[in-house]
From TrEMBL:
Composition-biased stretches (Basic and acidic residues): 740-761
Occurrences of domain TMC (ranges): 517-632
Organism the protein comes from: Coilia grayii
Biased composition (Basic residues): 9-18, 819-829
GO cellular component terms, A-Z: membrane
Protein topology in the membrane: Multi-pass membrane protein
Official protein name in the record: Transmembrane channel-like protein
Presence of keyword Transmembrane helix: yes
Disordered: region residues: 1-90, 740-829
Transmembrane region(s): 198-221, 277-297, 371-392, 446-465, 588-608, 637-660, 698-718
Length: 829
């Protein structure tokens, strides 16, 4: 091809460069490079070759032409592209880099653009294609391939992270089931199941700690069943040890198993690994509370509401309600209607609240009724506590008798479960006298139910520890009797065989004298209380929800009134009662896990079955709430109750470890004065001597008291700092509000609304000493003479637009209230 031919194609290629360019300068240069690359690929020639075509001979051109045909025959278009990229100058690379950065910024900030979605998608697609196409050209020379490889690996890594996050979300247990409940009943009902799943995860970790460090080592490395008295059923109990009634009371073989405290041996080390079981038992008991405390506090910190919509003192209350009240996860039309009605009701309540503040009422009567209601509820709480104490005392009497029935054996659990069912509706009925706002009444109701549960539990503990003290008094006599029995056995054997050096056979573990083992008895009471609570809860759901819904569904057609609209109707899911039941049950688990290590496993099974059972009950038997609340308002309230009951559950366990002496013939701490002496024994025997002296120095009251004072000062300092931050935040809010007011006033061309700024305006130079401007005199204009107007002509008439009939009359004759009468002819002169 001749030189002229190559030059003839150049304008065409340049035209493609201009056609593919962008509108702005930098993007136009990049578009030119795109056109150059496309032209080089399509025509088989490059811009570098054209630039050097003038100085070449005809033979060189023919050789170049043959080489280009070979390249084209091979289909390798990347060489021409690389040649065109190598021809890019430093300015072009800088322009390309700038254009790529602009596109990346556009992709990052595309959400903030006030564009329609169609335009956003179009711009996003173009920007992504541009970045993908030209990002590899930012390298220089040999680094281009490395840069392209890095970009590719970065994209692969980002995609892997996104897929891994999706995989983790898919691995969350019961996610689809909870989403289904959430779409039908809103996030408030789903919050209970999320809380239930969180409790399941917490108990799963506690189960792993207990079974991994206490139960499994005892099973694998400890003495087998029947080796020692504490692991053997007494001979008097063996005939009934496998009866169903005995096993349901957790006696017989259940009592002498790994479920309870008394089964574990007191050897310092067990097995070939020299595992220190007593130390592990104590540390797991303490670590259970430590881990639970850390998780609860961390969850409360993560659940802090950073939004302003839920704060009672926040500004723009109606704006927050208007734009943030809707639950976008609702997928059921009935739930959506209820949510719509709920939002409407919340607006009405906000208006009615302001009216209630200005309403006059008989304050003395209202105070009397509230005092009366609180007195009645206090009497109810006191009566329930006395009833539990009385029942526990009766159970101690029944324990010494053999002619008792099923009710006498389970009287404590039955009474506590019935109190939990009867007292909350009674509290709700009495609370009608107080006439509180529904939100305040709900908090009072939750607090009273929590006080009922906690009071019943602590009354149960006081009565139980009273029984423990009685058993500790009898334990010394039983211990002396067992020692006397052992000595008499050896003495009688020697006397009978007339050989003082003969070794008597060991006593059968089933025939040995047993101590009371009060730790196992306390653990049995907690396990029975937990199991009875599970039974009552499941039976309540079956009768109160399933049978009720079954009756309403199938008997509505043949009944006297509408069962769905009237009584009994379908049941609603009781969020507060179920959450408080979970909190109360978890408190029993924390208390009883030290005395019954198997209680954590029972609770894991309970939570697992509750998830499926209650999800089925909600979807099958319940209807959405008439008033749908957002879940974020109550998350930390429930977690606060859980933190409180965790602290109150810690007290009995610490009292047991530090004060009460352990049983002499059962449990890992038998033979010691106090349970915590295991730690002191480990420090003395297994650690260097300076460690023991270090712990002794740290236990000195001279160090503990200053440490406590330092902690108090640190808490005071942090509290003062937080108050200062709150004050600063309030000041910033005021300044922001003033700035918004100033902006509104400036936008509306009004005077400043800030009184301080009005006072400071007089101090500005040239403003403070100027006298007030005198009002200008308004000159009265003489009325102009009327001009003659021909009929049908408008003349010199000034039309005033947008003048209402009630506006001021321009002629000064008063307001115009009637339509002017139509004149038949021209006006008279």
């Amino acid at each position: 091809m001749t030189n002229g031919g190559s030059t003839a194609r150049r304008p065409k290629r340049r035209g493609r460069k201009r056609g593919s360019g962008e509108t702005n300068g930098s993007e136009g240069e990049v578009g030119g490079e795109v056109g150059a690359e496309e032209g080089g690929e399509g025509g088989g020639t490059g811009s570098v070759e054209d630039a050097g075509g003038k100085g070449k001979s005809k033979k060189d051109k023919d050789k170049d032409k043959k080489g280009k045909k070979k390249k084209k025959g091979k289909g390798n278009s990347s060489d021409s592209k690389s040649d065109s990229e190598e021809s890019m100058s430093a300015g072009e690379l800088a322009a390309l880099m700038e254009a790529v950065d602009e596109k990346k910024k556009l992709i990052a900030n595309l959400r903030s653009k006030p564009w329609r979605m169609k335009r956003r998608l179009h711009v996003l697609r173009e920007a992504q294609e541009f970045v993908d196409k030209f990002e590899g050209a930012l390298g220089k020379g040999k680094n281009k391939a490395l840069y392209a490889f890095k970009i590719m690996m970065m994209k692969k890594w980002i995609k892997f992270l996104r897929d891994f996050e999706n995989f983790k979300t898919a691995c969350i247990p019961w996610e689809r089931k909870i989403k289904e409940v959430e779409s039908h009943y809103g996030s408030s009902v789903a919050s209970y199941f999320i809380f239930l799943r969180w409790m399941y995860g917490l108990n799963l970790v506690l189960f792993a700690l207990t079974f991994g460090l206490v139960v499994i080592p005892e099973i694998l490395m400890g003495l087998p069943y029947g080796a020692i008295p504490r692991k053997t059923v007494p001979r008097a109990e063996q005939p009934t040890a496998q009866d169903y009634s005995t096993l349901m009371d957790f006696n017989g073989y259940c009592k002498y198993s790994v479920l309870f405290y008394g089964y574990y041996n007191d050897q310092r080390t067990i097995g070939p690994l020299k595992f220190r079981l007593p130390l592990s038992y104590l540390m797991v008991g303490i670590g259970t509370f430590g881990y639970s405390l850390m998780v609860v506090i961390r969850t409360m910190a993560n659940n802090l509401d950073v939004g302003g919509g839920d704060d009672a003192d926040s500004e723009f209350t109606f704006s927050w309600k208007m734009f943030t009240s809707w639950d976008y996860l609702i997928g059921n039309p009935e739930t959506a209607d209820n949510k719509y009605a709920s939002i409407t009701t919340s607006f009405k309540e906000s208006i009615v609240d302001e009216q209630d503040r200005q309403k006059d009422e008989n304050i003395h009567l209202r105070r009397f009724l509230r005092v009366l209601a609180n007195f009645m509820i206090t009497c109810t709480l006191g009566g329930s506590g006395y009833l539990i104490f009385f029942v526990v005392k009766r159970s101690q009497e029944f324990a010494t008798r053999d002619d008792i029935g099923w009710y006498e054996k389970n009287e404590v659990e039955i009474v506590m479960s019935l109190l939990g069912l009867v007292c909350p509706p009674l509290f709700e009925t009495i609370a009608e006298l107080e006439d509180y706002h529904p939100r305040i009444a709900l908090k009072w109701q939750l607090g009273r139910i929590f006080a009922l549960f906690l009071g019943n539990l602590y009354t149960f503990l006081f009565a139980l520890f009273d029984e423990v003290n009685n058993k500790l008094d009898d334990e010394m006599q039983i211990r002396n009797a067992s020692i006397w029995f052992t000595k008499e056995y050896y003495a009688n054997f020697s006397r009978y065989n007339n050989d003082s050096e003969a070794t008597p056979p060991p006593i059968n573990p089933a025939d040995a004298i047993r101590g009371p083992c009060w730790e196992t008895d306390v653990g049995i009471e907690f396990v029975k209380l937990t199991v009875s609570d599970i039974q009552v809860t499941y039976l309540t759901i079956f009768i109160g929800d399933f049978l009720r819904a079954f009756f309403v569904r199938f008997f509505n057609y043949c009944w006297c009134w509408d069962l769905e609209a009237g009584w009994p109707s379908y049941g609603e899911f009781d969020i507060s009662g179920n959450v408080l039941g979970l909190v109360f049950n978890q408190g029993m688990i924390w208390m009883g896990a030290f005395y019954a290590p198997g209680l954590v496993g029972i609770n894991v099974l309970r939570l697992l079955s509750s998830m499926y059972y209650q999800c089925w009950a909600v979807m099958c038997c319940n209807v959405p709430h008439e008033r749908v609340f957002k879940a974020s308002k109550s998350n930390n309230f429930y977690m606060g109750l859980l933190l409180l009951i965790l602290f109150l559950s810690l007290l009995p366990v610490v009292f047991t470890i530090m004060t009460l002496p352990p049983s002499f013939d059962c449990g890992p701490f038998s033979g010691k004065e106090k349970m915590f002496h295991v730690i002191m024994e480990t420090i003395e025997l297994d650690l260097p001597s300076f460690v023991g002296s270090l712990f002794t120095s740290l236990a000195n009251p001279g160090l503990i008291i200053p440490g406590v004072l330092l902690m108090v000062l640190a808490i005071y300092y942090l509290n003062a700092t937080s108050k200062a931050y709150m004050t600063a935040n309030n000041e910033l809010k005021k300044k922001m509000q003033m700035a918004r007011d100033e902006e509104k006033a400036r936008r509306n061309n009004k005077d400043s609304t800030n009184e301080v700024m009005k006072d400071l305006e007089y101090l500005l130079p040239g403003r403070g000493w100027e006298p007030d401007p005198e009002p200008e005199e308004v000159k009265e204009e003489k009325p102009a003479k009327k001009t003659k107007v021909k009929p049908g002509a408008a003349g010199d008439v000034k039309v005033q637009k947008d003048v209402s009939l009630a506006s001021e009359n321009p002629n000064g004759k008063g307001p115009v209230t009637k339509q002017p009468k139509k004149s038949k002819g021209p006006p008279k002169e």
